Amino acid sequence: MPRRRPSLLRLLPDFGLGLIAALGLAPFNVWGASVIALAVLLWRLSRAQPHTVFWHALAAGFGWFGLAMSWIIDPFLVEPEVYGWMAPFALFFMALGGALFWALPAWIATRGSLGWRAQAVAIAIALVVSDWLRGWIFTGLPWAQIGQIWIGTPIAQSAAWIGATGLSFLTLLMAVLPTLLARPSEAIKASRFVPGTIASIMLIGAVWAAGMARLAAPLPADHQTIIRVVQPNAEQRLKWDPEWSGIFFRRLLDISAEPGSRDLVIWPETAVNFLLEDASDLLPVMSQAADAPLIMGIQRREGSRYYNSLVTLNAGASLGPVYDKFHLVPFGEYIPWGDMMAKIGISAFAAQEGHGYSPGTGPRVIQLGQNIPDFQPLICYEAIFPQHLRAVDDRPGWLLQATNDAWFGKFSGPYQHLEQAQLRAIEAGLPLIRAANTGVSAVIDARGDIRVSLGMSQQGKIDAQLPAALPETFWIRWGNAPILLLTAILGAAIAIRRRT
């Protein structure tokens, strides 16, 4: 394992570079700061001794994830008198855990004798692979991937071909070019990095122009289907209060019943505080208010199992298709070894019934008919996993994300979550409808553009035509295989050079 840790003073610049790099993510969206900070960081890592690379990368990763994941304290402040003391520990260990996904790959990449240029490239390759692996290891958490700095810019359109992992590859390529093409010199002079900086700017310009060309192409005509998204502005600290939950339920009914044409009404995740099995008297009331098919977030029970579900309520209050969330949040929606833990009273943080939710069967496409295109549902956290878009047999016409972003506070978490939904739309070439309890609800087209939205802490509705889908994207057909193959080839070239 890594030894001889440098002094904290020597690691402070790396921590600062990680913080600056994280400014490319929402709500800051200063992508230029990210590219420059990552370029300086890779140069520093290229000059570091192999036995200190781990620590330099750990410090940088701690800065990146410390800022990017700072919203993690907000769930613990919903009931501060009970959970507030955990908040600083949650942020510290989340940042440290994320930092290990930078430090360990960097350390592994620099085993053996490498020149400083090859060391920079090896670390960049390792970080790309690490970004991909974070979406899978320990059930996955692909939040704050490096390539997410481009969401909202034309460069994000590249995700239709190379996905989120490919955006990380592009970003690290832009960042490593100044070091890779630096002129040999013992002195640290800015002129050394001119060739690589020019190459990096040219690459950014080329990919930006390609994205602009894609955005300039006409989209297919929207569907005639009118979708109403209802946002009740249910604050998390009040959501399950018996008095307030009745107020929020009335809001859902009243907003759903407002005048205006609609073919489908959508309520957010866990929109109501009662179980589906206890709602028989209320289903006709909800159906009448919607005056159209209603998709609602609700908890349901089967025996001793509880599910976080989306349920369709058809005309006449008859139940239609049911979708159960299958990718649950560890410790939030379920506890590992939950059946055993339940016996000693340990339950999931966010589950309101039982000791935690049980997972559903997996991704699926739901058919409603009645001139409503088939759709793939995603409940909250599921929308951060691009692999779920490729796990269905039939291509849907649109994506639906029902979420409860009230857990994420109001500063960065909800906006990062929204941007990842935009990225899913680009990757799949599908429009995405987003229904949130407190914001941000949105209609997102197949190129990731937000057509209309309801911001944080707003109460109201969105009535909008359903945007049309684009043809199946290259990424949907091939996934991350091309990018991973390219990184494997580059990694093999580095390994061969190391042996010679």
UniProtKB/TrEMBL annotation:
Has keyword RNA-binding?
Answer: no
What is an example of a GO molecular function annotated in this UniProt entry? Answer: N-acyltransferase activity
Where is it mainly found?
A: membrane
The pathway that the record names for this protein is:
Protein modification; lipoprotein biosynthesis (N-acyl transfer)
User: Which GO terms are recorded in the biological process aspect for this UniProt protein?
Assistant: lipoprotein biosynthetic process
Q: Which domain of life is it from?
A: Bacteria
Give the PANTHER family listed for this entry. Answer: APOLIPOPROTEIN N-ACYLTRANSFERASE
* Name of the protein this chain belongs to: Apolipoprotein N-acyltransferase
